[in-house]
């Protein structure tokens, strides 16, 4: 399908310690559906959440224009970057956000491993911000004024982390932690945290929410 400057734009934001390659299947699906897609890569180690949003998300949104909606599809940490950006900015009218496995209330896994030297080195500043405690970045975020849909996973391939998480989880984030009070819709799928964006059902649900503002139940 051909795409002009008047087509709605979708910005993809990958998760921590990943790259834009992890969002390629999502990008291909959305391009075939007629969207202009910006698959943003960003280094999660050198910067904190505020710096990442300023350096990578803000210019991507600015470059997408305001004549059409600018949707966001995020995985994990990407959802926190989106929420940080939306504390002081708005998206164009009609824009929607789909968050895949966002640690919206922090991660109990981060609470445990954040002080481990290998984790501190590999994950950098942003890895120190994702806990559930008073110093966690999620405690600083107010509700966002946007149409948000959340997709959580409940299949773990990381049992060494799952035992740290309450209730159903995807191996990195509990289902309960993904929820937002202001979300428009919510679904849980049988997929793991790392592989959520490769799941065909998840990608179909993303397209449905961007079109209709709700998931297909």
Low-confidence stretches: none
| SS elements, strand count | 6
The major sheet is characterized as: 6 strands, parallel
Q: Count structural domains.
A: 1
Give the oligomeric state of the chains in this entry, treating copies of one chain as homo and distinct chains as hetero.
Answer: single chain
Placed side by side, the strands forming the largest sheet appear as 2-1-3-4-5-6
Helix content: 25-40%
What fold name stands as the CATH topology? Answer: Rossmann fold
Could you walk me through the main structural features you see in this protein, from its secondary elements to its overall organization?
The chain has eight helices and six strands. With 217 residues, it is α/β, with parallel strands linked by helices. It has a single domain, classed as 3-Layer(aba) Sandwich (Rossmann fold), CATH 3.40.50. Strands 2-1-3-4-5-6 form a six-stranded parallel sheet, with helices on both faces. β3, α3 and β4 form a beta-alpha-beta unit. The chain is globular, with a radius of gyration of 16 Å. The two termini are 27 Å apart. The mean pLDDT is 91.
């Amino acid at each position: 399908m051909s795409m002009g400057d008047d087509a709605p734009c979708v910005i993809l934001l990958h998760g921590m310690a990943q790259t834009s390659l992890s969002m390629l299947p999502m990008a291909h699906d959305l391009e075939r559906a007629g969207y202009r897609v910006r698959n943003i890569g960003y280094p999660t180690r050198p910067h904190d959440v505020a710096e990442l949003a300023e350096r990578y998300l803000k210019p991507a949104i600015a470059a997408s224009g305001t004549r059409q909606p600018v949707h966001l599809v995020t995985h994990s940490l990407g959802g926190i970057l989106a929420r940080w950006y939306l504390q002081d900015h708005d998206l164009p009218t009609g824009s929607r956000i789909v968050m895949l496995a966002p640690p919206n209330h922090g991660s109990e896994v981060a609470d445990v491993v954040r002080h481990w030297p290998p984790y501190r080195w590999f994950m950098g500043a942003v890895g120190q911000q994702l806990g559930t405690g008073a110093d966690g970045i999620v405690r600083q975020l107010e509700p966002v004024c946007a149409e948000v849909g959340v997709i959580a996973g409940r299949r773990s391939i990381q049992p060494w982390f799952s035992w740290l998480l309450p209730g159903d989880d995807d191996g990195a984030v509990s289902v309960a932690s993904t929820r937002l009070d202001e979300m428009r819709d919510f679904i849980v799928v049988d997929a793991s945290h790392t592989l959520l964006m490769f799941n065909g059902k998840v990608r179909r649900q993303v397209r449905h929410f961007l079109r209709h503002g709700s998931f297909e139940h």
